[in-house]
Write a structure and sequence with these properties.
Protein name: Zn-ribbon-containing protein
Number of helices: 6
Structural class: alpha+beta
Organism: Parashewanella spongiae
Shape: elongated
Helix content: 25-40%
Strand order of the largest sheet: 6-5-7-10-9-8
Strand content: 15-25%
Radius of gyration: 21 Å
InterPro entries: UCP029037
Number of domains: 2
Distance between the termini: 30 Å
């Protein structure tokens, strides 16, 4: 990921309220298209212009060729608020993040966790993030539904990892049960991505707990009951199971993985 600063300059008299609404609308549109990452964007007014630090998957993420219909409308609304299109100042590469892939993978998967800010679509060959704006829009012109699913998955993951409240069990169920609402929505998004990209696309089903390593190794696919989905070697050192008909990858319970 890369760090940049967006600078918004006023070309006529405006108000803080109008500027705030127009700038935040653009930031939300860019986020919904995967062009910027994260959930919170601090906007400061300094020396007659508004400034905002952002994270992008690639140096070219803000190129107009990637703009969604919403981004295009949001840019037009900046003009209505008497604000020029933003100037981008490149800061540098984020040293604490992963590098996105620019290669077409042989397969891909939906995979995220509460510590990841990058795209939830990953290359199955390298596990590198795939910028969402590089695939066709999944729903209604952008990828808002996929990012919303990612946000909810991460929230569930953070709560169950904290293991501090009764909510741990409900949230764990959402990310590890193929009958949960979160799974159904994510699995449908996975199918939509596969249809649009014509690339086999899998869903990562989290697994923790269990009674023994032997029981885990004999665990069938929870969606179809396939008992032959255990792999000889884990994929990408993470995924011990893969069910091709169901397009699911999973792990042996982390309680038994060293």
């Amino acid at each position: 990921m890369y760090v940049s600063e967006l600078r918004f300059e006023c070309f006529d008299d405006t108000t803080i309220t109008a500027a705030e609404k127009a700038i935040n609308n653009l930031l939300e549109a860019l986020r919904a298209n995967g062009q910027i990452l994260g959930r919170e964007f601090a906007v400061a007014f300094n020396d007659g212009e508004f400034r905002c630090r952002i994270l992008t998957p690639e140096k070219s993420s803000l190129s107009s060729r990637f703009n969604s219909p919403w981004v295009k409308v949001a840019l037009a609304k900046l003009t209505e608020a008497k604000i020029l299109a933003p100037r981008e100042k490149f800061i540098g590469q984020d040293i604490n993040s992963e590098t996105s892939t620019d290669e077409t993978p042989s397969w891909q998967l939906l995979y995220t966790s509460y510590v990841h800010m990058c795209s939830p679509l990953r290359s199955g060959d390298t596990l590198q993030p795939i910028p969402l704006y590089r695939i066709p829009a999944t729903f209604n012109g952008d990828h808002k539904q996929m990012i919303r699913w990612q946000t909810e998955w991460q929230a569930c993951d953070e709560i169950q990892m904290a293991a501090a409240t009764k909510a741990e069990f409900a949230t764990l169920n959402e990310i590890s049960d193929c009958n949960s609402d979160l799974f159904r929505r994510g699995w449908d998004i996975r199918g939509r991505v596969e249809y649009l990209t014509n690339i086999p696309t899998y869903y990562y089903l989290y697994q923790v707990g269990g009674d023994s390593l032997e029981q885990e190794r004999n665990r069938p696919c929870p969606k179809c009951g396939n008992k032959e989905w255990l792999l000889d070697e884990p994929l990408l050192d993470l995924f011990h199971f893969r069910c091709e008909p169901c397009r699911i990858v999973s792990n042996i319970s982390w309680d038994y993985v060293t």
